[in-house]
Design goal:
- The chain has 296 residues and is α/β, with parallel strands linked by helices.
- It has ten helices and 13 strands.
- Helix content is 39%, strand content 17%.
- α4 (125-140) links the parallel β5 and β6.
- The longest helix is centred in the N-terminal third of the chain and has 21 residues, at 73-93.
- It is globular, with a radius of gyration of 19 Å.
Amino acid sequence: MRLLITGTSGLLGLNLALEAGNEHPLTGLDRRRLANLPFEQLEADLLAAGTAEETLERLRPEALIHCAALANLEACEADPQLAARLNAACQRRGVKMVHISTDAVFDGTKTGAYVEDDAPNPLSVYARTKLDGEAAVLQANPAAIVARVNFYGWSMSGTRSLAEFFVNNLQAGKGVAGFTDVSFCPTFVGDLAHLLLAMLEKDLHGLFHTVGATCMSKYDFGVAVARRFGLDASLIAPQSVDRSDLVARRAHNLCLSIHKLSTALQAPLPEFSTGLDRFYAQYQQGYPQKIRSYPQ
């Protein structure tokens, strides 16, 4: 299966391309120039008029995985339109599409795990943009896959995931807060990559919660990371998110049910402990240093 992956300088896009490249021919696309990559990489701005259509026409991939995350306000406003345009272009060419969304589309007030049919209520601009992107994609082509995710792993900057935050600070002997009242389902990015590829191979479509099998607090996540790396977990202070100095509102409960996805894949989803073991193994093998050598 020939893949086109957008946002390959990002945590998910890069790790997905490195994982998928072992089994599939692929091309990465990003606005940032990268070097020494073990896969073909194009430098392009998808927001530029005609770029998405021209790229699909030239490369003719069998599937597109849209990982590009747009952070600035103007780009965020354009993101739902970009997602819809990409999907419409894919539909015209018979290209499967996976659109990456977020667990943060929910406000966290539900007791128990959210299912795909629960009504979203995003608390931030970023989450509202992601929800708009979901709607735009599925309206343009219901055969597309929308995956709500929450993941961790090693990034080129070394600062893009919560796991890196804990490792970096604890290794430096710095105390940090761990929120005891924010629950989520963390997924190792390598496991997420395999799930996304399995969803394409199974020819799934529609909305899926694509997260880890275990829901835990961010405090417990930090403690688990500390113990796996042999770091001092006592440096993590249990704290309520409501008492933090964070400006953007955080949902308290982002536990998502994975029943729909595990049923569709006819397989259990990866356990948290195995993903954390893989994250630690990459650290031992020098993987963080390797991917930091890619920017040009």
